[in-house]
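Quick question, first post here. What does this chain look like in 3D?
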Amino acid sequence: MINVGFSSIFISGLDYPKSIDVNSEIFYFNTTLINSENEVYSNLILKYSLVDLDNLGLVYENSDKLSFDNNEVKIISKNFELPDLSSGNYAFNLIVTENTGAPIAGMKYDIELTNSGSNLNLPELIFEKSPHMLATDKNGEIIQKSYGSLGNNIPQDANKFVEFTLKNPQNLELETKIELFNSYSIENKLKEFNQNLNLKSNQDTYTLDLDYTIPGTYIVKTSFYNQGSKLFSKELRMVIAGESASIVSLLNKKDTYTSGENIQITGTLVGPADGRATLKNLKLNLQVSQNSETLIETSQTISQLGFEPVEFDFTQKTNFDLTKYKVKVTLTNLENNLLDEIELDYEKLEAEYLYKEGTIYKADFQGCFNNDVCEDFEQTLGNCYDCDKAKQQAITQEKQRYKDSLKNDSNQTIINNEDKQNAIKNFTYILTITVILLLFVIVIGYFVLRGIKKNE
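> Answer (accepted):
Ran it through. Tokens below.
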């Protein structure tokens, strides 16, 4: 998956247990999420999960939706019981994505789990070959294999399977479930397949049919169950070649607007997932509605769209107060076929904490935050340097006096240095003249003495 998420949302620190007994302890984590920019995010997704490092199986996952006001800070605290897991080494993953699934920020940490309970013989699957995508032609010949997140291109008309080889299936009653999601619209499940496996005692390869032909990029999630109890899941990326496009990011400048303001919606598009084709003359449509009534509708043409991300911008004046409204963006081709759409909800956001210039402070902070910006709450207080012109002028004058003082000190230093240099020059000159005179006296004395000796 390409990363076109914006980086203004970031994770600041994480507190979590480095080791835990799943039989007797509650798992927890505490972290801080920060929106460092003057942008509004609606329905971001915070995902947290545990992965077994022995087989890279997803054994626990959960998520929460979050919306961020401008420069908002969210302090997150979670605690929950983990399922009955085997002792071993795991990875704790924390990731923030846009509503479309595009990743924004993420962290990965190691954790050691122990299970001191009586049920120590937990069912375990051992793979000779882990789950991967398999594509065959009409004759059953393999034309493509794709592992993990590679997402190698699969022809649209190919037969598609999830394939894996079990090394030791044990005496399990194994069921599987395949769930198909659009990579950039992960909320809505596209399709689900269920199948019981007729396990063999020795090593064997199994294939799960995946009947889907619409071009695009997808997340294929395969889950394994034993007698109804989930063991773990595996996620794969599948790319079906052909004409496709996705809206991978959508941003709103403000949470609410008053009549006469410009609503500003920006975002990012990406073209065919197979990276081969370039689409031309696509139509991108914006619709803003409130109380089931369409208030704004406008469109623009995207001249061409390939695999490289393309940014778009809608700036439109609103003649209505937008307080609780929906923004819907759709992307269609020349034949008016829908390629992708996204719809987000907006309403007034109330931030408890704000972030500015590296500092986190409470939004209702009743004091001056001196940063040369007159905030609304500072204006209300009426006694802040940032909002008081006289005090600002006094500060400016004081700063200027300080600069002048430094300048004067610097000039005085230069003058003192010049005086020292002149004194040294004068001393050197006098010393030189003195030496010359002494030499002259010595020479004259020498010749006088010599003359006296001759006369004698």
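Confidence is low (pLDDT under 50) at residues 1-6.
The two ends are 116 Å apart (CA to CA).
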